[in-house]
Amino acid sequence: MTEAIPFRGLLYDPLRVPMCDVTAPPYDIISGDMLHKLYERGPYNIARVDCGMDISTDGGNLTKYLLAADNLRKWIEGGIIKFEDRPAYYLYETVYMAENTKKTMRGIFAAVKLAEPGHGIFPHEMTHSKPKEDRFNLLRICRANTSPIFSLYNNPEMKAADVLGSVLNEKPYIEFTDDDAVVHKCWIVNDSRHIETIQNGLRGRDIFIADGHHRYETALKYQRLMKEGSGDSGAAYNYVLMLLVNTADEGITIKPTHRLLLKLPPDALDLLTEQFDITRLKGGTDIIQAIAGKPHTFGMLLRGGQFYTLRYKGEIPSGILGIDVIILHEIIFKKLYNVSEFGYEMDMDKTIAKVAGGRDGRQEGGQYDAAFFLNPTRVGDIELVARAGMRMPPKSTYFYPKIPTGIVINYFDK
Predict the structure, then answer these.
(1) Which secondary-structure segment (H or E) carries 89?
(2) What per-residue confidence (pLDDT) applies to 226?
C-alpha cells in the first residue's frame, strides 16, 4: 500500500536569497548555455548541486558530484538553506498560462515510500542508462533528493482548495515568478490536523509517475544498495521526494512533442494511403488547429512546406495500442516506414523551420524530410499504459509547467 509521509524538508531561507535566483528547471531540460546562465545568477543556485559543471570553477579538483555535496553542506552550515523544525508537508501552487487560459495547479511535496513498479507506483515511459548513472552518482554522494519526482494520483474527495483552503489564505513561505512568467508558491503545512487530513487522503492511492522516471529507478537502486548494509526499514533512503498532484483538481497541462524524420522513403505518401485518409491542406492552415481534438489524427509536413492531415482509418486497436503516439510509432514509423531514429521538438514554429528549408541543406532549417504533429497525450492514456505495465515511446508526454528544482529538498542526514 502506498504511503506518503511528512518530512523535515531542507528549504532556502527566502530572507537570505531571492528564490528566483536560486531555483532552476529540472536537470534534464538544462542545456549548456542555460547552465552557465544559472551559475551567473549567484553562488547558491541549486543547479550547482543538481546538475553542476564537470569541473570545479575555483581551480579545485573535485568531481561535480563531490562538489555538489560540498556546496550543499556549506549552504546548510551558512544558513542559506535550513531544515524545517518538524515533519511537514509542503503545499505547492503554480499559476500559469496555457493556450491563452490562466490555470492553477496544486500539489503536495511528500516523502513517498519506495515500491517496485506496478505495486502502487506506476511508471509510463522508457528510461536510459546514462541519465540513471548520473542521477545515481548524485544521490549516492549527496544523500539527498535534490529535485522532486512529479507524480499524479486521483482523489475527488480531497481537492486541495477544499481541504487546505485555510492554508491557501495564509502568506506562503515561498513566492516568486520565473523567467516564463509562471508564478510559484509554497506553504509549510505542519499543523497536526492538516497533516492527518493529507496523510489519510494520500494513503493507499495509486501513484503515476509523470516526470522523473530516471530518478525513481535511481532511488530504488540506491535503496537496494543501502539495504545490503543496514537494512533499516525506517531509514530515509526507503522514501523518495515527490510532488503529488491530484488529477481531480484539473490543473494539469500536457503538451505534445512533435516528431521529425531525417529521411523518408520516396513513396512516403503512397505507403500511407491504405491505412490513412490523407487530406492536403491549403497554405496558411494552422496544422495544430487542423488536428485538435480529432482522435487518431496526425499532422504531416513535407520538405518544401506542404501540410497534410492523416486520419487512421484502420480498425482501432483496443487498449494501449489505440493511443495516438503508439499508433504513430508502431504503424507509420515501424511498420510502413521502417525507421527507428527521430528528432523531437515541442515548439510548432521550430518544428516547421526544421523541415521547410531547402533540400540542399544550405538554408537555415530544412535538415529533416518530414515532421509529424500530435495532439497531447491524455492523463487517462498514461494511466492505461502504466497499469498495463507497458512503457510509452520516449517523449510521449511533456507536462507543463515544469516543477522547479530547489523548492524543497529531502536530505537524508538530518
Answers:
(1) strand 89-98
(2) 92
Burial of 192 (0-12, 13-18, 19+ CB in 10 A): exposed
Tell me if 25 sits within 8 A of 404, measured CB to CB.
yes
DSSP 292: T
Helices 129-142 and 213-227: angle between axes, nearest 10 degrees: 50
- Where does residue 143 fall: left (phi above 0), alpha (psi -120 to 50 degrees), or beta otherwise? left
The SS3 call for residue 258 is strand
C-alpha closest to that of 237 among 121, 134, 140: 140
Judge contact between 183 and 95, C-beta under 8 A: yes
Low-confidence ranges of the chain (pLDDT < 50): 358-363
Output the pLDDT for position 149: 98
Q: How far apart are CA 13 and CA 83, in angstroms?
A: 10
CA distance 98 to 255: 9
Going from N- to C-terminal start, the domains of the chain cover 4-254+400-411, 257-375
Three-state DSSP at 239 gives strand
Pairing, β 144-145 against β 253-255: unpaired
pTM of the model: 0.90
Q: Compute, in degrees rounded to 10, the torsion defined by CA atoms 184, 185, 189, 195.
A: -50
Per-residue pLDDT tens over the stretch 363-413: 455 789 999 999 999 999 999 899 988 888 888 899 999 999 999 999 998
Q: Strand pairing partners for 276?
A: 312
Share of the chain above pLDDT 70, in %: 94
C-alpha R_g of the chain:
23
As a whole number, the mean pLDDT across the chain is 91
Q: Which pLDDT value is given to residue 317? A: 67
**Res 363: pLDDT:** 45
Q: Between the CA of residue 40 and those of 46, 311, 356, 374, what are the distances in Å?
A: 12, 48, 36, 37
Return the C-alpha cell found at 132. Answer: 540513471
